[in-house]
Amino acid sequence: MGNYTAKVLVLGDGAVGKTSLVRRYVEGEFDEDYIATVGVNLKQSSIEDIGLNMSIWDLYGQRSLLPGKHSSNYIGAEGALIVFDLTRKRTLDNLDRWVNDLYEVIGIVPVVFAGNKKDIMMDFQKKKKGNSKTENEFHDYMIENHYYKSIYEKELKFVPTSSSEIKKWFMDFKKKYRKQSAYFFTSAKTGEKVYEAFHKLGEYVVENQIRYEIDK
Ligand SMILES: Nc1nc2c(ncn2[C@@H]2O[C@H](COP(=O)(O)OP(=O)(O)O)[C@@H](O)[C@H]2O)c(=O)[nH]1
Ligand SMILES: [Mg+2]
């Protein structure tokens, strides 16, 4: 087994759970409190079974304020985990912009998408108890359950994403850029699919490094 090193990025809108996913993955912990990341949160992690040492660059998420401000941080990255929030459809709609930004700077690299906060969606489903709920009820549920915290103050409305629209978005992405992409429904809170998402990204990165060695 080779010994590989790579830089990967964690991208996505503010408060989607980037820092929490990295924390869960690297430290196995989760925190309800929100502390907005300033600049870059850099973590090292190795994936033993594929012999990869990853430096994970978790970047401050308010992308729309300053387009291209991350460009210099993108350089040298060999893959990205792009995160969106299952409780806020707008963060799914913004995926295109994250992908375009990234590919403009470093070209096409493997991307794994994480639809995060799966635990909240599961909890909401449980409370549904058969009767279908409207979008308003979802918003109310979010407020009642204290998800309306400082980070969300500017959020006018919580609109849940649907798995069919996520699937469609991903299929379109795959058609455009082919292979080496995947998506997972994750929860930094319960840990669901967090390891799988980072591992998949690591596999793609190592695949490319092996291919590069062979082509040399
Ligand atoms: N319930 C739940 N809350 C989460 C999850 N991931 C993140 N959060 C919360 O969402 C807020 C924003 O998370 P953070 O990781 O700081 O987002 P970032 O801005 O993308 O780095 C924090 O209050 C976290 O506790 C999750 O999977 N489930
Ligand atoms: Mg953060």
Description:
The chain has helices at 18-27, 71-74, 89-93, 95-106, 118-128, 135-144, 163-177, 194-215, and strands at residues 4-11, 40-47, 52-59, 77-85, 111-116, 181-185. The chain has 216 residues and is of the alpha/beta class. Strand 2 and strand 3 (52-59) form a beta hairpin. It contains eight helices and six strands, in the order E-H-E-E-H-E-H-H-E-H-H-H-E-H. It has a six-stranded mixed sheet, sandwiched between helices. The model has no long low-confidence stretch (mean pLDDT 87). It has a single domain, classed as Rossmann fold (3-Layer(aba) Sandwich). It is 41% helix and 20% strand. Magnesium ion is lined by residues 18-19, 37, 58.
Tell me how many strands there are: 6
**Helical segment count:** 8
Sheet with most strands: 6 strands, mixed
User: How many discrete domains?
Assistant: 1
The top-level CATH class is: Alpha Beta
Give a quick precis of the structure.
The protein has helices spanning 18-27, 71-74, 89-93, 95-106, 118-128, 135-144, 163-177, 194-215, and strands spanning 4-11, 40-47, 52-59, 77-85, 111-116, 181-185.
